[in-house]
Amino acid sequence: xxxxxxxxxxxxxxxxxxxxxxxxxxxxxxxxxxxxxxxxxxxxxxxxxxxxxxxxxxxxxxxxxxxxxxxxxxxxxxxxxxxxxxxxxxxxxxxxxxxxxxxxxxxxxxxxxxxxxxxxxxxxxxxxxxxxxxxxxxxxxxxxxxxxxxxxxxxxxxxxxxxxxxxxxxxxxxxxxxxxxxxxxxxxxxxxxxxxxxxxxxxxxxxxxxxxxxxxxxxxxxxxxxxxxxxxxxxxxxxxxxxxxxxxxxxxxxxxxxxxxxxxxxxxxxxxxxxxxxxxxxxxxxxxxxxxxxxxxxxxxxxxxxxxxxxxxxxxxxxxxxxxxxxxxxxxxxxxxxxxxxxxxxxxxxxxxxxxxxxxxxxxxxxxxxxxxxxxxxxxxxxxxxxxxxxxxxxxxxxxxxxxxxxxxxxxxxxxxxxxxxxxxxxxxxxxxxxxxxxxxxxxxxxxxxxxxxxxxxxxxxxxxxxxxxxxxxxxxxxxxxxxxxxxxxxxxxxxxxxxxxxxxxxxxxxxxxxxxxxxxxxxxxxxxxxxxxxxxx
Length: 538
Description:
single chain, disordered N terminus
């Protein structure tokens, strides 16, 4: 993976594929012995390959060359790209194919996942402009049904929902591990038993249900279903004719089926049903999303001059709350202040089968959006492509950088084979191990057995470890969906350890049986060894 330099405006926010993900992988590796080889992987496909001349620029030909090069070299199944500058569309296109085999074009409908949050935030802000909602008034004033198992919930304001500083968090309400609701009303009701993780307004915690509540607020205050309100007030005025908000991933094209990377290849996988309204439920096209990018960079005015929000409103959605110092999260957007240049405004989005990223470069009036049909963690293609397009916008020559899993999976494969080999060796040598063990004190034997239990414990706790390090809770099945090679390695290690422990237990039982009978034991102990055993156990 191409390293992020201090000048790079591309950032991976927590909860979506964070920039700190390599640190998270390193921590998991420390627990399950993956070692630093995975976290330190920095690989460039075809090093030095330039896709543009020394006069690189963000024009249709250069964009097309770079993305086609990326698709070919990384074997990415499919992607859509939208690039805008000022009030015009620079380029929209599709590449590759969908999971159902159809060619991807600029009119192919794709899920944008958490890029939907910025649209929900704007729908709320339109109600603020109309005087129907006040940002700093408690949510419960507009939505009495919003109740948590925490008296502090009454203090949560509308602003805190949008900036994700409400105090709600996956640690208190792990929504993706629970039964998925079917309506916004059910989604809000499901939170009634949840506590808060922090005081409202104190800390940022990325948590999808913040935007379920925001969407429910929109439909209650506006008096019509959230999807209708979003279409009428945002999509239709911007000419986004093929864009819609859906309730769940099963309502997305092909039921959001996409691809997962494993061991250098991709294979098609279904997306489990997730409730998505308000947080990650928008389906759109490259053509339509270009209109959204233009409006964001043009102070709320569309390409054809229609205003859907004031310049102040749009600026506010791009501005992190001053009251919370630990975050650069605004309202459905992150502000990346890294490097010496002007900040970029961006957000990522991920399903288990798709990933996306939108980046605004306000100083240049440039908007870039990419959606790929590879999933979270092992995919990571959309941020890689966006990074290359940002390089083009700077007049630099982008390089095609492989997703980290294209190297990390082979490291994991080596560890998987090593675990299997060590397991076979441990089973074969169970007898000699027992002969040595029975001569030692019991607590010494227990300490020597402890490392064999760690791979089993690591497998059972893998989802919790990943969730803790990524600030998002999930299940082992979801981790397996997102990064198959990691779970295969953990499972093989656990099976190998279990087999060794079982073989040693059987060998020990046989040994004790033969000792009691006074016959040569089944593990081949000599008479002297049996004498030592008898002495030690008398």
